[in-house]
Structure formats: C-alpha cells, structure tokens
Inverse folding.
C-alpha cells in the first residue's frame, strides 16, 4: 500500500456503509480523531441517500481515508473483506457507521488484545443513546436444541455482563465493533461471504476460537451504538437475511452431526420464527 510507513501498533478501521448518511459523518469524525488509526477504509454498498457526498468530503480532508463505492449491495461480509484487502495495517477494526468511538476506544481494545496470550479478537461494551447496553456485545453460540423447544430461543444469545472483569471471555462479540490482528483475520479466511448480513460475526468469532484465538469483550471500553439506522427502511429484508444466516451457521457448524429429522426440525423452527415476526415487520414498513 502506498502512503506513510506502517508501525506494528497501527490500526486500519474498516466501515461498511449502506444508507448511513444520518450517522456516518459523526462516525468518521470520531474515527479520524481516534488514537492509533493509520488507515480508514469505507466500503459503500450502493447508497442513494447522500452517503457518497459525505465520503468524498472526508477523503479530501484526510489522506488516511479511502472509500470503495460498490455499484450494488454485495453484503456486509463481502464489503468487510474488501476494506481489509485495501489496507495493510497490522490491526483491523471493523466499525459500524452508527458507532461513535472515543479517542482512546480502539487503542484500548488493541491493548487488551495484545495483553492476552496468543491471538485475540475483542469487542467493546456497546450502549444506545438511551444508555441501555446492547446485548449483542456479549453472546454465546446459538443453541439449536433450545430452538427446537422454543423457536424464539435462537435470538436469545445475550450473556450478562460480568462486572468483576475488565475483559470478559465470551463466545462471540458484535460485528458492530470488533478488533483483531490482521494475521488472525487472514489465517481464518476473513468473513464468510456466504452470509449477506447477520450471523457472519458469530461465524467469524467461532472460527477464531477454533483457530486457538481468544474472544472477549472489554467491559471497560464503552462505545455509543445508534442501532439499526441502515436497516430501518427494509425490515423484512433484514429479518429474512438474519434467519437465512442462522440456517447457514447451523449448516456449517452443526448439521453434519445431526440426523435428517433434526436438520428438518431446525429448518422449520427458523422459518416459523420468521413467519411469526412477519406481520409486525410489515406494519413497521
């Protein structure tokens, strides 16, 4: 990559945007002021809401920022991999466009990851504008046996915050904000591009753990997350891909050791849950 020399502690921040104009300016202003960020890559998935004008303005103001404008929406995982490939800093931070990091947020996450033995993937304590914590910041792996007893159980992955620990081991952190070494990201093959959106973060964390890395959330690093800005205009589309992603996740990690009847039951449970939620989503439109 052309540009200034890269240090071992430098971070490349990757942002995937889609109709994110309402929050993207604030997100990028904070990333540009964040300690340790040497590169900012924004991959836009075909926005039509003024996002590109915001990106052009920031790119002109800050040479660390480059953007890729996809003509359509290939999905979150594809775009994350594009942004990672267009940078070369030793650390990667994937940051949603509706996040507002503090100046030391990414630097402190990197410090936590460096302090763990071996490689580590870390997330932060996310909270909304109302101060309520985002449960997706701390999650366990999906329990498909529980799903068969209760189709809604698949969505109940939240793990309580352990207030006694600054760094809490978990199965998975939220894809809204995760930081890991580039070497680990490359070794496990990046994000699985078979996911369109949702569940790809669960997948990445599971593969990181399988590769011997630690996965943990930094309870002492608090970051504002204005959730769901880009998905509000298409609730049915988003929910469809949430459920589709869950089925793909099951197929990758559990289906091979389950019988045909169990696989069919899991499939039915996932899509019954989607159908139950469909009337509410249609009203939201």
């Amino acid at each position: 990559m052309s540009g200034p020399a890269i240090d071992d502690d430098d971070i490349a921040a990757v942002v995937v945007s889609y109709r994110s104009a309402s929050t993207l300016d604030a997100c990028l202003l904070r990333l540009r002021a964040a300690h340790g960020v040497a590169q900012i890559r924004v991959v836009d998935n075909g926005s039509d809401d003024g996002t590109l004008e915001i990106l052009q303005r920031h790119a002109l103001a800050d040479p660390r920022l480059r953007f890729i404008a996809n003509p359509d929406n290939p999905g979150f995982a594809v775009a994350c991999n594009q942004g990672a490939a267009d940078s070369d800093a030793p650390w990667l931070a994937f940051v949603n466009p509706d996040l507002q990091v503090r100046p030391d947020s990414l630097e402190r996450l990197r410090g936590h990851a460096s302090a763990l033995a071996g490689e580590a993937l870390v997330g932060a304590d996310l909270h909304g504008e109302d101060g309520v914590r985002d449960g997706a910041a701390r999650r366990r792996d999906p329990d498909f046996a529980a799903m068969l007893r209760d189709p809604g159980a698949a969505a109940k992955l939240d793990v309580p915050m352990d207030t006694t620990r600054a760094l809490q081991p978990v199965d998975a952190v939220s894809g809204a904000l995760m930081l890991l070494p580039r070497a680990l990201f490359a070794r496990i093959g990046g994000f699985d591009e078979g996911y369109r959106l949702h569940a790809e973060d669960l997948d990445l964390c599971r593969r990181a753990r399988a590769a011997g890395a630690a996965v943990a959330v930094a309870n002492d690093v608090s970051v504002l997350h204005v959730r769901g800005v880009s998905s509000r205009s298409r609730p049915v589309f988003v929910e469809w891909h949430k459920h589709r992603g869950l089925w793909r996740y099951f197929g990758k990690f559990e289906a091979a050791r389950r019988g045909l009847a169990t696989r069919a039951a899991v499939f039915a449970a996932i899509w019954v849950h989607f159908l139950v939620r469909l009337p509410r989503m249609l009203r939201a439109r």
Residues 260-284 form the longest helix (25 residues). Strands lie at 11-17, 37-45, 65-70, 91-95, 99-100, 120-127, 167-169, 177-181, 214-225.
